[in-house]
Amino acid sequence: MEIADIFVINKADHPGWRKWSAEIQSLSAWHRPDGWTPPIIRTVATDGRHRRVMAAIEVARTHTRKCEPAPAVLQIDHLGSR
Fold first, then answer.
1. Which pLDDT does position 43 carry in this prediction?
2. Contact 5, 60 (CB under 8 A)
3. Which residue among 6, 37, 48, 59 is least packed, with the fewest CB closer than 10 Å?
4. Euclidean distance between CA atoms 10 and 29, whole angstroms
5. What is the full DSSP assignment across the chain?
């Protein structure tokens, strides 16, 4: 199973974000072979916290480059119900 490099909970000002966060945290108890612990970042588009996502992507890229001999491809996906 592949574990994400970063987990982002968008619309963290809406009800239910705590449930998603708890579920993701239970997944993050699994350890990746490269030692990376994926951060969980809560965002709200209107308050500027989305900048944390870009910073976390840079940290993940740096870690990935140190651990993998070949260039890594980071994918951005989403989690949530529609």
1. 85
2. yes
3. 48
4. 21
5. ----S-EEE--TTSTTHHHHHHHHHHHHTSPPTT-----EEE--TTTTTTHHHHHHHHHHHHHHHHH-SSPP-------S--
